[in-house]
Amino acid sequence: xxxxxxxxxxxxxxxxxxxxxxxxxxxxxxxxxxxxxxxxxxxxxxxxxxxxxxxxxxxxxxxxxxxxxxxxxxxxxxxxxxxxxxxxxxxxxxxxxxxxxxxxxxxxxxxxxxxxxxxxxxxxxxxxxxxxxxxxxxxxxxxxxxxxxxxxxxxxxxxxxxxxxxxxxxxxxxxxxxxxxxxxxxxxxxxxxxxxxxxxxxxxxxxxxxxxxxxxxxxxxxxxxxxxxxxxxxxxxxxxxxxxxxxxxxxxxxxxxxxxxxxxxxxxxxxx
Length: 272
What we know:
There is one protein chain. With 272 residues, the protein is mainly α. It folds into two domains: 14-168, no CATH class; 171-263. It contains eight helices and four strands, in the order αααβββααααβα. The protein has a two-stranded antiparallel sheet with strand order 1-4. The termini are far apart.
């Protein structure tokens, strides 16, 4: 009986944590999207995942709740430790995304007191204040609402959510990795075009049809074929990367030899 009870307790705790994770991931996505949309003056659907969730906020919230609950009566400790916990989560998440996908998804290098552009003092202090709000106001009310759901309901909802997050994470990660590969393919085509139409390394790849006029028939046909491949590659790449580049307008792909491809991609995405 004790084993069954332990298993039941584990499932209850696990399912509740999944529900809390989802709740705070959604709240993080909502706050981030609203803030970025106000700054950009148009709607930005923020987030790495396809769905309306930012898991980094959920991880920061759950870790903060775990470590700050024992000191929740001390506001100063909640603020200081909350600042440290959430800043560590953001820094590690930025490093992990850069390492896995060779892209800098956000950059605070233009802020004072930043660390490798992944975190900055201003945001760290804001996160500390958010931890105070989380512990004093938000989390108790979220728990109250969650406990209105029957335990069996929480369990089944959590199972569905785990499946959803696994699928969404898989496809989102796959798309991010495919973007890098397709950018490199496009860059290879653009390098061939440069050689074919005799463009210098620093010349802009623009008005290519005009540049074909000075070529003989054979070279003109080869260049025209390359341009057709370029247009097809741009169309394919823009369809794949449209959501990511709109969610993270300042994303910096760490591909130093693919400047042309990145420039062409951004031009394509800016077209109406």
